[in-house]
Structures are given as structure tokens and as C-alpha cells.
């Protein structure tokens, strides 16, 4: 741990959680970027996006932790050929320490398998929530980016993570249903929860031109019906058979096929993300967990 890290930990232990937040952030804490990856429709490529963007950001020198919060079947660990023995529910029920549950993935990324623990998060008692926050505090100094695969749709869990994060990536494809479902997700977050900033990543397009056309379609509808909304074009990942092959090999595309067109696109998108932090106030990771757990 670096010196500043040691300092932060010491400070954290000395002060009450609620008191420390407003004064400590500017001087002691480097904000952790908390990014959700969601979609309206399932199967649009979110998990692959999460894995490959994470790897690409690791290559930019960032320390990345993936939180697999998808309750569906196509989990990050399966895509990476990992078989975690434990998950977040073991941390929540006190059987395991956080470090024992985190797994080291390829390319330097770390993964917090969460699937079966996610629903329990919403049902914790206040004491359990505080305990959990304390456990997670330790991560503040160890990571730069927390990237979350939320799964698809507009379930409470998906909304919950989107609202707690400070950056939201919505993955769409050229399929019309992917666009209408993405619009539905954005609309719920905007209309019911006042969320205004979204970054749109187009996957499975024939190329950048098509990606920009798809973005323009979504953006036009959103601008027309949702006043004050800001949709940013994040980039396009082309349809690429190397992605399917990498899934079959249970390896990240970036490692299995580094020269594939989709790999190049992922590196470019990661660079865009690193170059352009969100223009909204970033909280610390504790803020994220606090919002998430409604402490
Ligand atoms: N750019 C791409 N080119 C070709 N195939 C792709 C691309 N992106 C995704 N796929 C294919 O789509 C499949 C689904 O991808 P992925 O599991 O990442 O989607 P998802 O959105 O996470 O799905 P779910 O909603 O079920 O969690 C992959 O197994 C892969 O075969
Ligand atoms: Mg998935």
C-alpha cells in the first residue's frame, strides 16, 4: 500500500463514517470511478463489454475490479473459465472475508462474484449494512475503477446499481428491440429517478458509421421526449466472429484475439473512458456503497 493509502486507512479508522465524508474527500481520497454496464434487452454483449473494457483499462494502468451483479446465467466467471468457490453471500453471512471471495482474473482484473449475494444486499439490517461497508472500505485504496455488469432490463437491481453508480454505460445493438428496450430503461431512470447522464455503446454494428446512425436514432427520440437528457456516444464495437470464438474458448477477446477489429474497438473505447471522466460530481466508493445500501 502507498503512503497516502496508509494515511487514508488510518484516518478512516479514527473517524466516524458519517463525519469523515465531506471533509476527507478532496485531500485524502482519490475518487474511484464506479461504472455500470446495462442494457434494456438481454444478450446484447454486456458481459463481454465488461470483461474487455476492464482488461483494456488495466492496460491503461488502472486497477479494475469487476462486480458481477447479473442474476442471469451468462456470468463473468463462466466467460472467463473461472469457477469461484465463494461469492458475496459468503461475505454477507460472515463465512468469508472479502479478500477470500475476490478472484484474480486474466490481464490483472479482479472479480467479485456477486450473483447470488446481490438480492441479499437489499435485505440487510442496518447493522449488517454498516458492517459490509466497513469491509468494503478496504477496497478504496486498492482499486481505481469498479465496473459493474448489472444484467439486462428494468428490474429493481438494475435500477439500484445504475442510480448508485457515477457513470452509466448502456449497450445497444442495431436491433430495433434493443433500442426500444434501452429507451425504456433510460426513461425509467430519467423520469422516476431524475438521472440525466448516459453513455451509449453500440455493439454488433457493421462499423462506426452504422454505430453512429444507431446512436443518432436513440438520441433523437430521447431528445424529443426527455427534456434535459444527455446521451453521449461512447463508441462502436463491430460484429466480429473473434468475439464468439473467444466466448467458446472462455478467454477474454483482448487476450485471445488481440488483433481482431473488436479488440481494437475496445481499446479505443477504454481510452475514451479514461480521457473523459464524467462531468458530474464523482463520489468516493463509500458514497457508492452508501447510496447502494441506502445507509
Ligand atoms: N461484437 C460482437 N461480435 C460478435 N458476437 C458478439 C459480439 N458481442 C457479443 N457477441 C455474442 O453475443 C453473445 C452474448 O454476449 P454477452 O453474454 O456478453 O451478452 P449479455 O448482454 O451479457 O447477455 P445477458 O443479458 O444474457 O447477460 C456472446 O456469447 C457472443 O457470442
Ligand atoms: Mg451478461
How would you describe the overall organization of this protein?
This protein is an alpha/beta fold and 295 residues long. The chain has one domain (32-293): P-loop containing nucleotide triphosphate hydrolases (Rossmann fold, 3-Layer(aba) Sandwich). Helices cover 51% and strands 17% of the residues. The protein contains 15 helices and eight strands. The protein has helices spanning 3-14, 17-28, 46-59, 76-79, 88-92, 98-101, 115-121, 126-137, 156-164, 176-191, 208-225, 241-249, 253-256, 261-275, 285-293, and strands at 33-39, 64-68, 103-104, 110-113, 145-152, 167-172, 197-205, 230-238. α3 (46-59) packs across α14. Adenosine-5'-triphosphate is lined by residues 39, 42-48, 70, 72, 74, 151-152, 203-204, 237, 239-240, 243-244, 247, 262.
Low-confidence runs of at least 5 consecutive residues: 1-28
Provide the structure class. Answer: alpha/beta
Reported by name, the CATH topology is Rossmann fold
What's the helix-strand series?
HHEHEHHHEEHHEHEHEHEHHHH
CATH architecture group name: 3-Layer(aba) Sandwich
How many domains make up the 3D coordinates? 1
Give the ligands present: adenosine-5'-triphosphate, magnesium ion
- How would you write the strand order of the largest sheet? 3-4-2-5-1-6-7-8
Q: How many individual β-strands?
A: 8
Mean pLDDT: 82
Molecular shape: globular
Helix content: 40-55%
Kindly provide the name of the CATH class.
Answer: Alpha Beta
Span between termini: 28 Å
Portion in beta strands: 15-25%
CATH superfamily: P-loop containing nucleotide triphosphate hydrolases
**Count of alpha/pi helices:** 15
Rg calc: 19 Å
Amino acid at each position: 500500500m502507498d503512503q497516502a493509502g496508509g494515511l487514508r486507512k488510518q484516518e478512516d479508522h479514527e473517524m466516524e463514517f458519517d463525519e469523515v465524508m465531506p471533509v476527507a474527500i478532496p485531500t485524502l481520497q482519490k475518487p474511484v470511478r464506479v461504472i455500470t454496464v446495462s442494457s434494456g434487452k438481454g444478450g446484447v454483449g454486456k458481459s463481454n463489454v465488461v470483461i474487455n473494457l476492464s482488461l483494456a483499462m488495466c492496460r491503461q494502468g488502472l486497477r479494475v475490479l469487476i462486480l458481477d451483479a447479473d442474476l442471469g446465467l451468462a456470468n463473468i466467471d463462466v466467460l472467463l473459465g473461472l469457477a469461484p468457490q465463494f461469492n458475496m453471500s459468503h461475505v454477507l453471512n460472515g463465512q468469508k472475508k472479502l479478500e477470500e471471495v475476490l478472484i484474480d482474473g486474466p490481464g490483472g482484473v479482479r472479480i467479485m462474484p456477486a450473483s447470488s449475494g446481490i438480492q441479499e444486499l437489499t435485505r440487510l439490517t442496518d447493522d449488517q449494512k454498516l458492517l459490509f461497508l466497513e469491509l468494503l472500505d478496504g477496497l478504496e485504496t486498492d482499486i481505481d475503477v469498479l465496473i459493474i455488469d448489472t444484467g439486462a432490463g428494468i428490474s429493481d437491481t438494475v435500477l439500484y446499481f445504475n442510480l448508485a453508480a457515477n457513470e452509466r454505460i448502456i449497450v445497444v445493438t442495431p436491433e430495433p428491440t434493443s433500442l426500444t428496450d434501452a429507451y425504456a430503461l433510460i426513461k425509467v431512470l430519467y423520469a422516476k429517478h431524475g438521472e440525466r447522464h448516459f453513455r451509449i455503446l453500440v455493439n454488433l454494428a457493421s462499423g462506426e458509421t452504422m454505430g453512429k446512425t444507431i446512436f443518432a436514432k436513440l438520441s433523437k427520440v430521447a431528445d424529443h421526449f426527455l427534456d434535459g437528457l444527455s446521451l453521449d456516444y461512447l463508441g462502436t464495437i463491430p460484429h466480429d466472429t473473434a468475439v464468439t470464438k473467444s466466448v467458446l474458448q472462455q478467454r477474454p477477446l483482448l487476450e485471445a484475439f488481440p488483433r481482431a477489429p473488436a479488440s481494437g474497438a475496445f481499446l479505443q473505447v477504454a481510452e475514451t473512458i479514461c480521457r473523459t471522466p464524467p462531468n458530474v460530481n464523482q463520489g468516493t466508493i463509500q458514497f457508492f456503497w452508501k447510496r447502494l445500501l441506502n445507509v
